[in-house]
Write a structure and sequence with these properties.
Blueprint lengths: L1 H16 L8 E13 L2 E13 L5 E6 L7 H13 L7 E4 L3 H10 L4 E4 L1 H8 L9 H9 L6 H15 L4 H10 L22
Parallel strand pairs: 1-4, 4-5
Antiparallel strand pairs: 1-2, 2-3
């Protein structure tokens, strides 16, 4: 068993350290927490993941890492390691609203725009709705991200806000302050790809 583990560790190390030869205009970043055994002790640790989307729209897992926790420092080191392996051409990053992650992106990838992952966005939106809220409200909000250009998305957002402001004012105010439509400035053939992070 130990020989098998050593072999797997070697293959994983090669995968994690391989040179990134092509451009990835989209970079999806996320992390989850997993139980990890270290020196006989089981601890909860962050598992950051980077998924790149190339110019043909194909997704590729670039790296799966390990950190004690999510922080500006851990994300900065994570992104620096990707750049050292050849990460380039990033035009838009997609992530949740984690402050440390956003700061690290701004420092290491200043040329890239940022888009909030709509799965996290819709999940956060639930905090501003009563439990028995109309399902149509969130369904229609989700539909905004199916639009094909920024002007159409803005128009539909204005219609959505007008329709629901009277009933769910807290949600509408939050969406106005936190909604992010940066992705609509990207090239058309990639527009379908980048809204969501790694599957949970």
């Amino acid at each position: 068993m130990s020989r098998i583990n050593e072999s797997l560790d070697g293959e994983l190390a090669k995968f994690a350290e391989r040179r990134l030869e092509e451009e990835y205009p989209y970079l999806i970043l996320d992390a989850r927490y997993e139980k990890v055994r270290e020196e006989g002790v089981v601890r909860s640790q962050a598992v950051p993941v980077a998924i790149g989307i190339n110019r043909e729209g194909r997704r590729c897992v670039l790296v799966v890492g390990l950190a004690n926790r999510e922080s500006t420092t851990s994300w900065r080191e994570f992104l620096l390691a990707l750049k050292q392996r050849g990460l380039r051409g990033v035009e838009l990053t997609v992530s949740d609203d984690h402050a440390g992650l956003k700061q690290a992106i701004a420092e290491i990838l200043p040329e890239a725009g940022w888009q909030r992952c709509y799965v996290h966005f819709l999940r956060n939106a639930l905090d501003y709705l009563p439990r028995k809220a109309a399902d149509d409200c969130l369904v229609e909000l989700r539909w905004l991200y199916d639009r094909h250009d920024l002007e159409q998305a803005r128009q539909d957002l204005a219609v959505w806000l007008q329709k629901w402001q009277g009933k769910y004012s807290k949600l509408c105010n939050w969406v106005e302050a936190n909604g992010c439509l940066n992705v609509f400035g990207m090239a058309g053939n990639l527009l379908e790809a980048p809204f969501t992070g790694p599957a949970r």
